[in-house]
Amino acid sequence: MVTDEALSAVFKGHSIDRDNVAHFRGRLERRLLINRCIDCGVWRHPPRPICSSCWSSRLEPTPVAGTGTIHLAIFLHQGPPAEGVDYATPYPVVTVELDEQPGLRFTSSVVGAPNETIAIGRRVRLDWIERAGTPLPVFRLAEGAGQ
Ligand SMILES: [Zn+2]
Fold this sequence. Notes:
Blueprint: H1 4-10, H2 21-28, E1 33-37, E2 43-44, E3 59-63, E4 67-76, E5 91-98, E6 105-108, E7 123-131, E8 134-141
Antiparallel strand pairs: 1-2, 1-3, 4-5, 4-7, 5-6, 7-8
The structure holds zinc ion.
Zinc ion binds at residues 37, 39-40, 42, 51, 53-54, 56.
């Protein structure tokens, strides 16, 4: 297993703590893990030390199906330098409401689709790309539209 120190080195720029360490370990294996409460079943992201619904501390990092609906979409015309990101074409950032639970949202980008096809309400599915040598969870448009 990767040490905490190695994990922090891999995910430079992220603050890794005891609540989200399992999430980032999962990313290395291309598994999107979201904390789920063992006692009441509620999902929560970003991770917190206790369940926001029943106050249980028994939370389990659990894989999600990776399907959802775009809840929010913005296009960055500038931003921090990142491998594979060229802001000449505005970089899409989407918040996706995951199918597991209303209000359970995960923010990333959409790949493989022209910006004009990326819109609120579009269905997406999770995929993984490599960025700076690290697996990055991203979304692709579902239903075959936009190629
Ligand atoms: Zn709970």
